[in-house]
Specification:
7-stranded mixed β-sheet; globular; single chain; binds S-adenosylmethionine; alpha/beta; Rossmann fold; 7 strands
């Protein structure tokens, strides 16, 4: 277990309920399906899933491109055990590594694509730009970083739903900057086009936005 602190997958709630909660409360098939169509995993590619949690998206990536090498990274040893069990049950091979987003670059820069879903909203404000910079440094020149997360909550309804659900579990300190647009502001510093979500999925837990950042060649 890394010695630094982090918010676990379902915040204060039991990790074993994570997959069911995501399925029931986030329109999972809609945003994960949109993310998969955006990533377009291909055979021969090496793809890193940062904050992979229980491995749902890493497994989807491998099933969509069996000839791709998929690496899942997460600081939580227990969630990695759940992820490994999920991949084994599906009969597929994913490489699991323990570590933080800020260390993503130490696992690269050989990745064609780096993904992060529902991770940045749980990270302290100071860690968010560091994590994004490390993900960009982990991809090869011309590679891509794909993000799906609770970013700016644009309407009263989305802000209220986010407050009543995600913020109850994950707390306010790390999540409020996302609701206020911190992610878009950080991405704008990297590349103005990257700050515009490619898709926004409204859910009963708040809006989940997709982003795509291309690393220059
Ligand atoms: C809400 S879960 C999302 C899991 C998965 N990506 C998904 O789409 O279901 C957030 C995950 O981020 C991990 N995490 C928290 N802080 C992190 C950090 N600083 N770097 C990388 N992962 C982190 C947690 O351990 C947890 O597994």
């Amino acid at each position: 277990m890394p010695d630094a602190a982090f918010t676990p997958a379902l915040g204060r709630a039991d990790l074993d309920d994570y997959d069911r909660a995501i399925r029931l409360w986030t329109r999972e098939s809609v945003w994960r399906g949109a993310l998969l169509r955006q990533v377009v995993p291909r055979s021969g590619e090496t793809i890193l899933d940062v904050g992979c949690g229980t491995g749902s998206f890493a497994v989807m990536l491998k099933q969509a491109a069996t000839g791709a090498r998929i690496v899942g990274l997460d600081p939580d040893a227990r969630v990695l055990e759940l992820a490994a069990a999920k991949a084994a049950a599906a009969g597929i091979e994913v490489e699991w590594r323990q570590g933080f987003a800020r260390d993503a670059a130490s696992h690269g820069p050989e990745f064609d694509k780096v993904i992060s879903s529902l991770v940045l909203h749980q990270m302290p404000l100071i860690e968010k730009p560091i994590g994004i910079a490390a993900m960009l440094a982990a991809v090869r020149p011309g590679g891509e970083v794909h993000i799906a997360d609770y970013a700016r909550q644009r309407s009263w309804l989305m802000r209220t739903l986010f407050r009543l659900t995600v913020q109850r579990l994950d707390g306010v300190a790390d999540t409020q900057p996302n609701a206020d647009g911190a992610l878009e502001a950080i991405l704008a510093e990297t590349n103005a086009a990257a700050a515009h979500p490619t898709r926004v999925v409204r859910t009963v837990t708040g809006a989940i936005s997709l982003f795509l950042v291309r690393r220059e060649r």
